[in-house]
Design goal:
14 helices; single chain; alpha/beta
Length: 440
């Protein structure tokens, strides 16, 4: 009965998380999900850019149930701790949690071993912290130590594999952004056991290095911060041309996976220029400063400058979009009015519990959790009001219309902002014929 209850709770929580992720993210893309073995023990190791949301996203993307290792801080509130245990989350005590209780780490290892020995999957974030930097932080040896010790106990016959994962978010603090989950080639643990009893530290270091290298290949890793701005600028200016040229990425991939692969290629090229020809890199930075100053002075978007059509076509295109905007306005207003209250409460929750500047990795988690509570509560209140006014049949149809019209309203007003920006860009380019020359 206990196992049935645990399975039911896990299925219910998993369904709620999938629903919440589906509303929060416009798209969650998987790149090479076939690399995740469908059977046998696996240890997933991932970068950690987005706090607890990373676990939600991996659980959503992996085509099999996954157990996660989470900080003991999450278990301090007993009801939440009970729920996490029912969902298969394993508590771990980190140095920053309680230095005096580090012996409990051995208990965590044993709990992970039991799951893997049963042929199940465990996910771990070997950086040990969540962060907002584009660089991969130092990968701690915990995952390698666990994997080697467990495989050694079974004489190298358990068949444990480590699956590296790279998480990339387009704008993790924004609603309806995109996420990409990249899976690397599985790493069999047994080959790293050679000489384990005599050279334990060397084996751990070799496997840990392989894990770190594999994760870096699956994400955008810019080793030097001074290169990050140049990589971002080159991406903004030339990404679409590289995408259309099909010279870097020739295999059919999803849009976000293609963007990541192209950005990785840009980062490698920028790194080579900074290393081999620093004078050329400095000249590019000066031209970039010149370009961005004029762009800011003219208050133009790069999108307008990159269009192949002329300014007259741009104006006509914007006018056509304006006509479509007028037709869609009633639905957008209907959905937008119903979103005002719950959206305001979610924004307050994010500003209160996850300041975007200081705790950006936590903002998506707070937004998702607040949205799961606030939007259903507000919609339930709207339903009660509708019941007292129009009765059951009409009230049910009214309730069903709320989430759909809310998503339409969000997309409508987002595109409306782009439309007004495009109209202004067309007006500036029609009046200031020297703008392109100044920016070249």
């Amino acid at each position: 009965m206990n196992r049935y209850l645990q399975s039911s709770i896990r299925s219910m929580v998993s369904g709620l998380i999938r629903l919440a992720l589906g509303f929060h993210y416009a798209r969650i893309e998987r790149y090479h999900p076939e690399r995740v073995p469908r059977r046998g023990p696996i240890l997933l190791t991932s970068n950690h850019p987005n706090s607890v949301t990373d676990a939600y996203t991996i659980g959503y993307a992996v085509p099999r149930p996954v157990h996660f290792v989470g900080t003991v801080q999450l278990f301090r509130w007993k009801p939440l701790g009970w729920l996490l245990r029912q969902c298969g989350v394993i508590a771990v005590n980190r140095v920053q949690d309680d230095r005096r209780a580090m012996r409990s780490v051995l208990d965590t290892f044993e709990a992970v071993y039991r799951v893997l020995e049963a042929g199940d999957a465990v996910a771990i974030f070997p950086e040990g912290i969540t962060h907002n930097d584009p660089q991969l932080k130092t990968v701690k040896t915990g995952a390698a130590r666990m994997a080697l010790e467990l495989e050694h106990r079974h004489g190298g016959r358990l068949g444990l594999q480590i699956v590296p994962v790279g998480l990339t978010f387009t704008a993790k603090e924004q609603y309806r952004s995109d996420a990409l989950v990249c899976f690397g080639e599985p790493i069999p643990v047994a080959p790293f056991l050679e000489g384990y009893e005599e050279r334990q530290k060397d084996c751990i270091r070799n496997l840990n290095g392989r894990i770190e290298e594999s994760i870096q290949r699956l994400m955008l890793h810019v080793p030097r911060l001074e290169e990050a701005r140049v990589v971002e600028a080159v991406k903004r200016l030339y990404l679409e041309r590289l995408r259309l040229g099909r010279e870097v990425v020739q295999e059919p991939v999803t849009p976000r996976a293609e963007e990541l692969l192209l950005t990785q290629a840009i980062a490698r090229a920028v790194g080579r220029v900074f290393e081999r020809d620093p004078g050329r890199a400095e000249k590019f930075v000066r031209r970039l400063d010149h370009y961005e100053r004029w762009l800011k002075r003219l208050r133009l978007s790069e999108e307008a400058l990159e269009r192949e059509e002329g300014t007259v076509k741009l104006a006509l295109r914007s006018a056509g979009l304006g006509a479509a905007a007028v037709l869609g306005l009633p639905v957008a207003l209907y959905g937008g009015l119903h979103r005002l209250l719950p959206a305001a409460v979610v924004r307050w929750a994010v500003s209160r519990f996850a300041d975007v500047q200081e705790h950006r990795p936590r903002s998506a988690m707070v937004a998702i959790l607040a949205g799961v509570i606030v939007f259903p509560a507000c919609y339930a209140g709207y339903l009660l009001l509708a019941l007292s006014w129009m009765g059951w049949p009409a009230a049910i149809w009214y309730l069903l219309s709320l989430p759909v019209s809310g998503l339409i309203a969000h997309a409508y007003f987002r595109e409306a902002r782009r439309l007004f920006g495009g109209l202004r860009d067309a007006w500036v380019l029609l009046r200031a014929r020297t703008a392109r020359r100044r920016l070249s």
